[in-house]
Amino acid sequence: MQKAEAEAKMKKSLKSLQDEYSLLRTGRATPALFERIQVEYYGSKTPMSQVANISVPEARLVVIQPWDKGVIGDIEKAILASDLSLTPSNDGKVIRINIPPLNESRRKELVKQAKTIAETYRVGIRNIRREVNDAYKKLQKENELTEDEVKKILDEVQKITDVAIKDTDKLCIEKEKEILEI
């Protein structure tokens, strides 16, 4: 594995962390909360975004407008069955979901979850570093690179790793602030 490949993998890991954090519920309404919800639609599981328009007209309100009114009940069932703990209400045309503010214990639980997620990504980034280091050390043993060249490359890989870990920490802190704000 090359240095550039490792850097690309680390950036991909950070993007994945951002995506995972977008699915973590805060006290604020966001369409991303519903990305993982699958709706039973004509006999197959379909992502909610493919059967309805999801909008956020207010900070604590999500409106889901199905393109096919016949699927409104299935969307409600899917939301109730999800791990979001939200209660939808429908008027036959649209589904409205009020996002209640999080209580203190739930906020602390979500912060802990965010930290655990970040640690998982830090470990992944360190594993990428280890793979690169092992590859370059192997090249050194095969006499394709000198010890000085390998040391220089390993230092550069460490700098790339440090930046990725720092970015992971920054994302975690931002998510913590978002969860803890009222």
Largest sheet: spatial strand order = 3-4-6-5
Helix content: 55-70%
Count the helices. How many? 4
The geometry reads as elongated
How would you describe this protein?
The chain has 182 residues and is of the alpha+beta class. It is 56% helix and 15% strand. The chain contains four helices and six strands. The chain has helices at residues 3-22, 72-81, 104-141, 147-180; strands at 38-41, 44-47, 52-58, 61-66, 88-90, 95-98. The strands form two sheets. Strands 3-4-6-5 form a four-stranded antiparallel β-sheet, with helices on one face. It has a two-stranded antiparallel ribbon with strand order 1-2. Strand 5 (88-90) and strand 6 (95-98) form a beta hairpin. Helix 3 runs antiparallel to helix 4. The mean pLDDT is 88.
